[in-house]
Design brief:
heterodimer, A: Thiol Ester Dehydrase, Chain A, four-stranded antiparallel β-sheet, B: alpha+beta, five-stranded antiparallel β-sheet, about 25% helix
């Protein structure tokens, strides 16, 4: 999926996120991080959550533990992945991730879904 | 700062705010909203004095000048949250670690545990690590 800078703005408003790097490309430039607005970390995690829900319709995520390793900028394309590492009668334990299409890993960790 | 308890407050995720969050991340507004609630809670800590901005200030970071970022998050989701319903929010600073990165330079890892509670106890918790750049 492509990250729309307008969605970054709307999410900043919804989360009442006071960090200007999500709204102002000049603030990003001043920090030497690039020249486009930076997507919120929770949004990057949410794309992974969406992938889990798509993989396990009707399941409920009970644990989600990730590290954020790189930034996603407005206009970037990303794709989320999930791989089952252990499955019981009641739960699926998964390795989860989000990559930019240039191959950079952005989010990586584990999740548990109650089936 | 480690061990600092944030002043607890009341957290409500409105249906409208949940829709707004879901829409902006391509999610399903009808799905369990607990995760959206944790994004809303941890992004600003507005319900927990002194809030994220104040907490960063105590750590010597100006949120508007320094560009702190989310470094990691662990969610423990015990029961689904109901929309438009008040929950008690609690928070505690549980870690502050100084690091020096090759690309990033010096920074601190500030870890805060936040949780939402109802009459039955803890509903959901987040252990959030924020990357706080050091000048």
């Amino acid at each position: 999926m492509k990250v729309d800078p307008e969605h970054i703005r709307v999410l900043a408003e919804a989360l009442e996120d006071p960090n200007p790097i999500h709204l102002d490309p000049d603030a990003v430039s001043r920090l030497g991080l690039g020249d486009r607005v930076i997507n919120q970390g929770p949004a990057n995690c949410a794309y992974v959550v969406n992938k889990l829900r798509e993989t396990f319709p009707g399941g409920r995520i009970t644990a989600f533990d990730v590290r954020l390793m790189a930034n996603v900028f407005g206009g970037d394309e990303v794709h989320a992945g999930t791989r089952i590492t252990e499955r019981t009668a009641t739960h699926a334990h998964c390795h989860v991730w989000l990559d930019r299409t240039d191959g950079t890993r952005v989010v990586e960790g584990t999740a548990t879904v109650a089936l | 700062m480690v061990g600092t308890m944030l002043e607890s407050g009341t957290f409500v995720l409105s249906s409208e705010r949940n829709r707004q969050i879901a829409r902006s991340v391509g999610g399903d507004a009808d799905a369990d909203a607990t995760i959206n609630a944790m994004w809303a809670l941890t992004s600003g800590l507005h319900e927990l004095e002194p809030g994220l901005k104040g907490l960063f200030a105590q750590a010597g970071c100006d949120i508007e000048r320094d560009g702190p970022m989310l470094g990691g998050i662990a969610l423990d989701l015990r029961r689904p949250l109901a929309l438009d319903t008040p929950y008690r929010a609690e928070g505690e600073v549980i870690g502050l670690e100084h690091k020096v990165g090759r690309r990033r330079g010096p920074f601190d890892l500030l870890t805060v545990r936040t949780s939402l509670h109802d009459d039955q106890g803890e509903l959901a918790a987040a252990t959030t690590t924020y990357i706080v750049p050091r000048p």
